[in-house]
Amino acid sequence: MGTLKGATLGLVLLTTATALGHEPKPAQSDEIMSFRYDRIELISQFLRAVYPELAEAEGILKLDAVFPHSGDINFIFRRCRVGSGVPGGRISGQEALASQIPSCATQLSAGGQPFFYANMSLQADKDRPISWFNVKGSFVADAELQAVRDRFKDRVYSDEFKDKQRYWTEADALKALRSKNPRYDPDHKKEFLATLSTDAIEKVTDCKLRTDSARFEVRRGSSLPPRLEWVLDGDAPATQTSRQAACWASFEPFSGHLTAMGGFTTRE
Hints:
Layout: E1 2-3, H1 7-19, H2 39-50, E2 58-65, E3 72-79, H3 95-100, E4 116-122, E5 130-136, H4 142-150, E6 156-157, E7 167-168, H5 170-178, H6 189-195, H7 198-205, E8 208-209, E9 215-221, E10 224-236, E11 245-251, E12 258-262
Parallel strand pairs: 6-7
Antiparallel strand pairs: 1-2, 2-3, 3-4, 4-5, 5-12, 8-10, 9-10, 10-11, 11-12
Helix pairs in contact: 1-2, 2-7
């Protein structure tokens, strides 16, 4: 418990507590995966590089993994105030904050959407350790984006039919998004790119994102609500055990946070 600054120790303690509840077993393949790097340190480096704001957030981080052979890891961060929850002395100026953030004593078994929930799949290649990453939670504006998507849940996509009761268009989706006042809608590409730490992302993932590939996408399925996000393509150079690969990353438009990465799985 505590802030995520210097998160390695906290991750080690919480991972140990979680992993002891499982029987360690190899990944689902004939070959047992052998990791030649510290996975806990890698996760800590990734969080600090990609989400520096989390370093100042106080709360509980739970990491769920099976060691020593699995590369699939889930971690949940619930924002809360460290302490028993029993009223006591407070530093001047903290009363307002305390009224907004619950005590960690009430969050150990809390349900509902967490502040930060991530899935990560690691592979043995220490030079390209991440094969994919996905994050949800209020930190990445899930509620705001879902509110936009819910407007279209009973309609299907079509740029041909004009019946607004049954169909939606890209223009409809973008209008609904803009009504929520996102910081980085399609008209604010320059501002969005100015927030990206592509060098920091490359250092921990080996994916060099190309800013000239940035585009805002209204991802759609014929019967699914739209997904609205910034997408960048990138390149991961060849390593001793992996071929050169294409990689990509997506970012939400409200705060510009990374929501997913992939494309690291091409191998010799």
